[in-house]
Amino acid sequence: MCRATEPTTTEYCINFAKEKGFKPESEVLDDGTTAHWLGKTDAKYLIYYLHGGGFACAANTGHLKFLWEAINQPNLSASVSILLLDYGKQASKLHPYSNPHLIHNQRDLTGTPQTTFPRQLSQCITMLTHILTLRPASQILLSGDSAGANMILGLLSQITHPSPILPPFSIASKFPTACLICPWGIFQIPSGEEKACSFVRNMDKDYINAMSLENWSGAYLEGQKANVYNQPFLAEKGWWEASADVVEDVLILGGEDEVLLDAIRAFSERFSSEHPHTTVAITKNEVHDSPMADYLFGGKEIGDQALLFRKWVREHAV
Q: Would you say the pTM of this structure is higher than 0.90?
C-alpha cells in the first residue's frame, strides 16, 4: 500500500513546479475535483493524464519526471502540456455520483477520507467535461498508467455504453489518440495451479505483487460487484467496436516482466480486433508501469516504454 508519509498529488505537483521554475496552476471543480497543469495552459495540445497507484496513491515524482521529459522533447513540432488529475479524495460536498454508503472511516494515508468506485471514475469524467469547454477534443490526447489506464477505458465505455451510475458524457468529435500504459483492467488473481501464468513467471521480477493488488482493488470496490466500468477487461465481445468512433487510434504498452502481462496481452488481442487502429507493444526486460518506475527507482537507462510514450507524443503533437 502507499507509504504513510507520502505527500499528496497536489504537494508533489507544487514541489515539482518549484523545482522546474514554473508557476503551479490547477483546474478546480465545484465538488473539489482538481487537476494540475504541467507546462503552459495555452499549449496547442493537452494530454489528459490519469495516473496509476491502485486508485488511491498519489502521483509521484516518477510520474512527474517522465511526463515532464515527454512534453519537453527538443524535437516537438507543437507545444503540449499535461493536465494531471488528482483523484480519489472525498467530495467537498456530496457528489451526485458518489455513493454515501461507501464513504467509510477508511482514510488514505495522508489522513483524507478516501472514496470508492465510482467516485474516481466520476471525477475523471467531470474533469474531462470541463476540459472540453476549454478546447476541442481534437486537441486532447488521452493517457494513463495502470489504474489510470483502467479509467481511460472507463471513459470510453461511458461514452459508448452510458451507465446511470456515472455522470452523462458525450463528445462532438473524436479524440485523436489514447495511450494505455500497462492497464490494470481485471482484479482477479490467477489461482496457484496456473503455474505458467505471468503472476508466477514474473513474481521475482516485478515490484508489484498479488497481495498489494488485492488490497488496492478491495479498497476500491469495497464489496461492490465487478462490472466493465471498474474492470474493463471483463467487457463482452464487441464492446469496444464503438470506441473507434470516440478515439482515432490507441497505443497499448505492457512489460514482458510484469505480473499483469497475461491479462494485458489477452485484452490487447480483444481490443485490437475491435478497434482497427490499435498498436500493441510488449517491451522486453520491463516491469509494470516502467516509465514511472524508471524515474522513481532509477538505477538504469530510460526504457522502451518511456521512449515509445515520447514517440507517441511527437507523432500526435503536430
A: yes
Query: Cell match 471543480: residue?
Result: 29
One-letter-per-residue 3-state SS of 229-265 = CCCHHHCCCCHHHHHHHCEEEEEEEEECCCCCHHHHH
> Which residues lie closer than 8 Å to 238 by C-beta, 6 or more apart?
274
- CB under 8 Å to 283, separation ≥6 — which residues? 253, 254, 255, 256, 290, 303, 304, 305, 308
Cell output for 186: 481485471
- Residues 3-60 have pLDDT tens digits of 556 799 999 999 999 999 999 999 999 999 999 999 999 999 999 999 999 998 999 9
Which residue, 254, 222, 243, 10, is CA-closest to 110?
10
| Cell numbers for 134 | 476549454
Contact at 8 Å (CB) between 257 and 290? Answer: no
Q: How far is CA 10 from CA 59, 125, 135, in A?
A: 9, 19, 24
